[in-house]
Amino acid sequence: MRALPEGERPWCSGVAVAAGTGSGPLVEDAFGWAVRYEVYDESADRGVELPREERVPVRTGRRHGTVFDLASLTKLFTTIVAVRAVERGQIDLDGRVASYAPELTAAAEHGVTVRQLLTHTSGLLPELPLYEYADDEQRLARLSAEPPTTPPGAARRYSDLNFLLLQRVLEHACGRTLDRLVGDTITGPLGMADTRFRPPSSWLPRIAATEDQRRPWARLDRGMLRGVVHDENAWALGGVAGHAGLFSTAGDLAVLCRALLRGGGGVVSSASVDLLLNAPGLGFEVDQPWFMGELAGRGAAGHTGFTGTSLVVDRARDVYLVLLANTVHPRRRPGNSAPRAAAGTALAGAVG
Asked: Residue 21: what pLDDT?
C-alpha cells in the first residue's frame, strides 16, 4: 500500500460514461478504478491506495459493466413509478398525500399534495437524521410528524423527505413495495437487469466502492462501503428508499434515457414524458448548467447524485448523457460539478 502524493486528489476514483441518441449509443467508455483505496487516512488527509494488482477497474458493457450507487438518481425512478400510477388512476397529482397515506399526519394537517412532493414545493426540510432512531417504527413516527417549514406550494426547497413520503403514498396506493414497483414498472419492461435496490452478493466484484464512512465527515461509522447503499438514511431504512438506494450501470441508464427520448418507450405515455421533462419538471431538474453545461438552455432535464452520478436527457438535440463516478471514494469532499458540466458542454458541441 502507498499513500497518494500530496495534492493528488482526483475528482473521482473512476467513471463510466454513456452518451447517445434515441436511436442508440454514441459513446460508452470507462476510466479509472471502481476500487482504488483501502482506507482513508485521516491524519494524513488522503486515501491509502491498494496495490495496483488489487484495484478493480471501471468497466462498461451489459452484464459486465461496473455497478454504481446511484444515490439521488433513485428519485427519477420513484418519479416515473408515480407518473405511471397517475396514468393508471391509482393516484392524482393534485391529490392530498394523506388521502393515500393517512399515517403522514403532518402532511395531512398542512394539506401537502403529491405534486408538491414531486416539485420540491412541500416546504419540508431537506432531510432528517432517521439513522439515529432505533427502528422503523420510530423513523416513520418522526417522518410522519415533521411539519413543513414554509407553507406548501409557496417556495421550492429540495428535500429527500419529499421522496420518502412519496414512497409511502405509492406503496399504499399500488399495494407493492417500492423495489417491486420499480422492477414491475421500469427495469423489468426495459430489460434493465443490472438495476436494483440491495444488490446481491454475486454482484460485488462489479460494484464500485464509495466511502470509508466514518465520523466526523460522515454520520455513521460503517467503514469502506461497497455493495451497500451510501446514504445513511436509506441504509437505516433497509436499503429501499424513495430518495436513494438504487444501484445501476451506465449501460442500463442509457436504456432508460433512450426510452424517454422515444416518448416513454412503453413505460409511460408521451404525455407523461412531457410532465416529467418539461419545466418545471416532475422529479427531474430542468436546464441546470451547473451540472449540464451547454446542454442546458433548450429544455434538457436530469439529476445528480451525491456519490458522483448524473444523468441528462436533452430532447431538443435528441441526446442523453450518463456519467457515473465514485467521487466519494475514499471520502466525501465539497461538491464539484465542473467535470459533469464539461462533459455536457462537450456533448452539446459534438452534436450541435
From this structure: 96
Taking only Cα atoms into account, the Rg of the chain, rounded to an integer number of angstroms, comes to 20
Q: First and final CA of the chain: distance in angstroms?
A: 46
- Tell me, letter by letter, the H, E, C secondary structure of 274-299: HHHHCCCCCCCEECCHHHHHHHCCCC
Least Cα distance to 32 among 66, 65, 57 occurs for 57
Residue 249 · residue 195 · CB < 8 Å:
yes
Query: Are the beta carbons of 60 and 251 closer than 8 angstroms?
Result: yes
51: DSSP letter = P
Q: What is the mean pLDDT of each run of 10 residues along the chain (352 residues)?
A: 49 96 95 97 93 96 91 98 98 97 96 98 97 96 96 96 98 98 98 98 97 96 98 98 98 98 96 97 98 98 98 98 97 93 97 86
What is the spatial distance between Cα 169 and Cα 171, in angstroms, rounded to a whole number?
A: 6
What integer pLDDT is reported at residue 8 of this predicted model?
Answer: 56
Q: Where are the beta strands (DSSP E) in the chain?
A: 2-3, 14-21, 24-35, 37-41, 46-49, 56-57, 68-69, 196-197, 212-213, 223-224, 246-248, 285-286, 301-305, 309-314, 319-325
Chain position carrying cell 451489459: 62
Distance CA(351)–CA(343), nearest Å, equals 13
Pair 149, 123: CB distance under 8 Å = yes
The whole model's pTM is what? 0.96
pLDDT of residue 309: 98
- Locus of grid cell 414512497: 167
Return the exposure string of 288-324: e unless at least 16 CB atoms fall within 10 Å of the residue's CB, then b: beebbbbbbeebbbbbbbbbbbbbbbbbebebbbbbb
Q: Residue 37: beta bridge partners?
A: 49
CB atoms within 10 A of CB 239: 18
Buried residues in 152-182 as b, exposed as e (16+ CB within 10 A): bbeeebebbbbbbbbbbbbbbbbeeebbebb
Per-residue pLDDT, 3: 39
